[in-house]
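tool=predict chain=A
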Amino acid sequence: MNQISDAAVMPERDAEGYLIEPGDWNEDVARLLAADENIELNDDHWDAINFMREYYEEHQVAADARFVIKHLAERLGKDAQKKLFELFPYGYVKQACKIAGMRRPRAWSTG
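tool=predict ok
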């Protein structure tokens, strides 16, 4: 599950490393983006990422962190917020949005 296929190709990214076109995302791209962030994706990462992708498909915008926390809380309970920041220690926008293939949200800081 954590293997990157030999055919994995990184799509075009902006100067900060976010995908230019979220439609270019796939799981191999997520693994490449995660490797750039020194993150090895596990089941909890994929749970958050898949929720974010589903949210994007439905709403055409990146999910706010509070929606991801609410989603994780269904499985993890009250520790969901802490878990999100353990999974993506340099920030939701900086790492989670990037790995999930979102464009950099303009109104959010990268902190």
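The chain is about 50% helix and 0% strand. The radius of gyration is 13 Å.
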